[in-house]
């Protein structure tokens, strides 16, 4: 959970945007068999590393090979240390260069399970002071306040969380988020606005404000053609014209 404009969800079960659970189990099994057998093969190690590169990495915590995207690279005396995003587990992990392998096309065909979400038409706010007019007002901001981020992270620890899908913009699902605590359902979007952590904007204003923001992490890959990840390309078509629905 980065902030209300960028949090990651692993979609499980039946869905128009991912394949079946069995398909992912087969993928993980085949991928780990392949990379374990080729672990010492120098040809499987990338010739160079760069940010946004799609690869397969060994995760010490999960004890398996995982599909990933390199987010940053730091050099040291004996190796490169990278920060990678696991696209099926929605996790950032540090990975040594010796544990990075070339992504084989066959293992990239299933859509990534980690999907990026954000609150629908809900923007951070800041206090604008006009010294000439001697007035103050709350206006949309580009960045979420640290207190708002902490509150958002804490409220998502509720017993139950549901999302009502409202729109899909490129690779991001825009939702109204609902949490249930002490048998009471709360709309997180409304709650942030009520506490002056956020404000609502129209869909048009939402797009205009998004165009001014810096690019967020995207797990779409330019290293493979869109035909290898068909669900990503077809999300808008799947959802266009359909009624909003809740997804647990």
TrEMBL record:
Keywords: ATP-binding, Helicase, Hydrolase, Nucleotide-binding, Repeat. Pfam families: TUDOR. SUPFAM superfamilies: Tudor/PWWP/MBT. Its EC number is 3.6.4.13. Gene3D superfamilies: 2.30.30.140, 2.40.50.90. It catalyses: ATP + H2O = ADP + phosphate + H(+). InterPro entries: SNase_OB-fold_sf (IPR035437), Tudor (IPR002999). GO terms for biological process: germ-line stem cell division. GO terms for molecular function: ATP binding; hydrolase activity; RNA helicase activity. The keyword Ubl conjugation does not apply. Residues 1-120 form the Tudor domain. It is an enzyme of class 3 (hydrolase). This is RNA helicase.
